Please model this.
Amino acid sequence: MRPTNPPDHAYDPDLRADADLDAEARARGYRLAVQCTSCKQWLVNARSVAAHRGPVCRRKGDNVA
Ligand SMILES: [Zn+2]
Model:
């Protein structure tokens, strides 16, 4: 089964389970990353992860998300 991009359940920093997962990963020295829905770059910045889009694509404003 191929994962979709963005996935059915996008990372949501306001969701307790997602926030806990992120905190857990950081505590162990990992960073959660998502793929930009436009250019497929891997994103680790919190805002980019939440938006599933990188800063460059967000600036371009093409609302694909
Ligand atoms: Zn992008």
